[in-house]
Structure formats: C-alpha cells, structure tokens
Amino acid sequence: MEEREDKRIRRTKKLLRQALTRLMQQKDFQSITVTDVVREADINRGTFYAHYRDVYDLREKIESEMIADFRGMIDDIHLNGGGSLHPVLMRAVDYLEENREIVTTLVRVSGAEGFSKKLIHVIEECRMESVPCRGVEDVYVARFIATGVVGMLERWVAESQPLPKNELIALMEHILSPMLQSARG
C-alpha cells in the first residue's frame, strides 16, 4: 500500500512539474497562480497544497531536486577517483536531454538566484572540494570552469538543432580534462 502511495505522489509531482513548465512557457512566472497550475495538471487544489505552499515553492523544489541530481553526478567524479569525465558528462547530458523543456524554461525564467547560478555554485563547490585551494587563483579557476560548463550546457539545451550529444561530450572532455589534470598535479 505504501509503495502504491509513493507512486501516486511521484505521479502527482510529475504532473505539477509538467503543468508549471507549460505555464512558464506561456506566460510570466509572476502571473502564474496555484489555480492555473492545478487546472493545467487536472488535479485538486488540496492535493497541490499537500506538497507545496505556492508556485514559488513548487519551482524552488523542482530546481533543488535537479541541482541535487547534478551534485550527485559531479560527486561521482570524486568517488571514481577523478577518473574519466566521460561517464559523468554522458549522464549529465542525458539528464539535460530528458529534462530539456523544464531546464530551458528554468534557465529562461529564473532570476538572479536562478537555476543557472545555483548550478554554477554547485560546480564551483565541487571543484574547490576536489582541489586543495592553493590561493585566490583557484577560486577564479573554479568560477571559470563552472560558468563555462553551464554556459555550454545552456546553449546546447536551448538550441533547436544542437550539436550531437557525443560531439558535445567530446568537446567538453577536450576542454575540461587539461584543466582538471593540471589542478591535480
């Protein structure tokens, strides 16, 4: 019974996420109401409030979930001893491809503390955790890597005919590998 309930909750949250994504593509986020979301998702208002306070809470939780997923992917680099970037980049790009609509919308809609900035922060943190900070230069290098990675991924997700996935991954590996190797040495 409990597993069935978990499935229903996951399904409900997915419907709400999809509804919010569609609405954010149609109008300004600030003008989206809970009524709009529940109508679009075809669920009851009480069900919405069982999971979220308001549409801002819904968006924040979607972003937080996705950021946590990315954090997990990046952490895998550390767990694998800093080996090949390929499997991590492949997972990240696959994830973006599967969630293209919501990622594109979050990047476009989110403000100064939005999705892109949160993703940059996660990549910076992971970089600083993996490399002993030897000076202020390392902080700048971490920001450079993070903004570059996020910028490439944003562009790839937003393009109507993006670079083929395998070419994007190869390009990112080509750019990142020397920077990551020199930091370990």
TrEMBL record:
TM segment ranges: none
DNA-binding region(s), chain positions: 33-52
Coiled coil: none
Residue span(s) of domain HTH tetR-type: 10-70
UniProt entry keywords in alphabetical sequence: DNA-binding
Entry GO MF terms: DNA binding
Signal peptide segment: none
PROSITE patterns registered for this protein in UniProt: HTH_TETR_2
Entries under InterPro entries matching the protein: Homeodomain-like_sf, HTH-type_Tx_Regulator, HTH_TetR, TetR_C_Firmicutes
Protein name: TetR/AcrR family transcriptional regulator C-terminal domain-containing protein
Taxonomic lineage from the root: Bacteria, Bacillati, Bacillota, Clostridia, Eubacteriales
